[in-house]
């Protein structure tokens, strides 16, 4: 049925009122009726696309936004909204084209420059992305998304000072942002700056839902009337990361270790399984908080306590890395046989940490972005006397 001009105006007014009230679910079908009645109206198509964006219906928003961008070639908002939709859909090259049009229509807009940087970064054009973030920050030196994005690029190419400067600037606007403080802490720790980095690294515990924590007060280093529980933060306590953290960090404090079943068989000290009652415990601390709570540095790490398990080496070479061994080398890949190896080579995984705890000569091959606790150096590791890091 063909709608009269008055009916279309009434629909549009009702839709705009609902959208202004935040009721996009009710506004969207009204905008759709207006767009059907006025298929060449760029404004109607733009409003329909925006409503669908608000509803998270990005695939449905694409078609009206593309048409709106053609009918409104001089409206930068139409180009920006189309680019945003295409970005969510993973079409970064097409998004970049729309953003270039928007930049020509509205030069000097920091948000448009930032979004160009995001598209360029997604396309792997990192130098161009950095220049786009530079442009955005030249127009608005406190633009938080550009500061954090550029910090990531600078850190990736080893410009630690530049990355830290950007994060410091971002934190002047949002000093309580746990994610920003965590990123700054990780950068500092990767450089070996434990004095400044460990405090910021504790911000990870303020990010909800990402880590396991028992129902106990969090220990802050104070004397306790009851027992102290130390635990891995991973939800899966049987995971490689949880076992690795317990092997690496359960040291230097009188505490009960919450750990995986197989690790409890090896540790020469009190342990508890996850899910067991916690009566008698006064407080708990994550293993990764111990360096901060106990004032460790890479130069003053306490030695790891002995294990019940003992090394019984033969001629096996433990090989626990994705890299292929030399063709003439017979290797052992069975994690259960680590204690029988005379030498171990591996990635940053729990069998390698077990070998290190057993005093077996061990070479750790770190990833391109290694665990921050290893520090910046290679060679002899301060964590284990028998380990060489490469």
Describe the structure.
The protein has 390 residues and is α/β, with parallel strands linked by helices. The protein folds into 3 domains: 5-203, Serine Threonine Protein Phosphatase 5, Tetratricopeptide repeat (Alpha Horseshoe), CATH 1.25.40; 211-308, no CATH class; 316-389, no CATH class. Helix content is 48%, strand content 9%. The protein is built from 16 helices and 10 strands. It has helices at 5-20, 24-37, 42-54, 58-71, 76-88, 92-105, 110-122, 126-139, 144-156, 160-173, 178-190, 194-201, 240-249, 261-266, 290-293, 350-357; strands at residues 227-231, 256-258, 271-272, 281-286, 316-320, 331-332, 341-346, 362-364, 379-380, 387-389. A 6-stranded mixed β-sheet has the order 6-5-7-8-10-9, with helices on one face. Strand 2 (256-258), helix 14 and strand 3 form a beta-alpha-beta unit. Helix 1 runs antiparallel to helix 2 (24-37), helix 3 (42-54) runs parallel beside helix 5 and helix 6 runs antiparallel to helix 7. It starts with a helix and ends with a strand. The model has no long low-confidence stretch (mean pLDDT 94).
Identify the notable features of this structure and list them briefly.
single chain, 390 residues, alpha/beta, Serine Threonine Protein Phosphatase 5, Tetratricopeptide repeat, 3 domains, 6-stranded mixed beta sheet, 4-stranded parallel beta sheet, 16 helices, 10 strands, elongated
């Amino acid at each position: 049925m063909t709608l009269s001009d008055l009916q279309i105006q009434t629909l549009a007014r009702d839709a705009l009122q609902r959208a202004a009230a935040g009721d996009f679910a009710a506004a969207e079908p009204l905008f759709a009726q207006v767009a059907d009645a006025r298929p060449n109206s760029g404004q109607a198509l733009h409003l329909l696309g925006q409503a669908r964006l608000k509803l998270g219906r990005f695939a449905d928003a694409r078609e009206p936004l593309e048409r709106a961008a053609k009918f409104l070639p001089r409206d930068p908002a139409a180009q920006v909204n189309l680019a945003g939709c295409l970005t969510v859909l993973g079409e970064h090259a097409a998004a970049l084209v729309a953003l270039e049009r928007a930049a020509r229509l509205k030069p000097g807009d920091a948000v448009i420059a930032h979004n160009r940087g995001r598209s360029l970064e997604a396309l792997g054009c990192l130098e161009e992305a950095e220049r786009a973030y530079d442009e955005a920050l030249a127009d608005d030196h406190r633009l938080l998304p550009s500061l954090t994005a550029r910090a990531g690029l600078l850190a990736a190419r080893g410009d630690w000072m530049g990355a830290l400067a950007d994060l410091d600037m971002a934190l002047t606007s949002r000093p309580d942002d746990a994610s920003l403080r965590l990123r700054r802490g990780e950068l500092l720790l990767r450089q070996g700056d434990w004095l400044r980095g460990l405090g910021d690294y504790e911000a990870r515990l303020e990010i909800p839902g990402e880590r396991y924590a028992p129902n106990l007060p969090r220990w802050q280093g104070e004397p306790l009337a009851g027992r102290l529980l130390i635990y891995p933060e991973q939800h899966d306590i049987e995971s490689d990361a949880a076992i690795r953290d317990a092997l690496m960090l359960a040291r230097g404090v009188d505490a009960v270790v919450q750990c995986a079943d197989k690790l409890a068989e090896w540790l020469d000290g009190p342990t508890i399984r996850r899910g067991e009652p916690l009566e008698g415990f006064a407080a708990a601390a994550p293993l990764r908080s111990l360096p901060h709570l106990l004032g460790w540095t890479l130069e003053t790490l306490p030695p790891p306590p002995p294990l019940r398990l003992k090394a019984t080496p033969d001629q096996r070479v433990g090989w626990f890395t994705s890299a292929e061994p030399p063709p003439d080398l017979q290797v052992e890949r069975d994690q259960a046989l680590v204690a029988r190896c005379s030498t171990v080579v591996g990635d940053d995984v729990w069998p390698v940490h077990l070998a290190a705890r057993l005093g077996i000569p061990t070479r750790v091959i770190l990833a391109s972005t290694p665990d921050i606790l290893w520090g910046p150096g290679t060679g002899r590791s301060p964590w284990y006397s028998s380990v060489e890091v490469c």
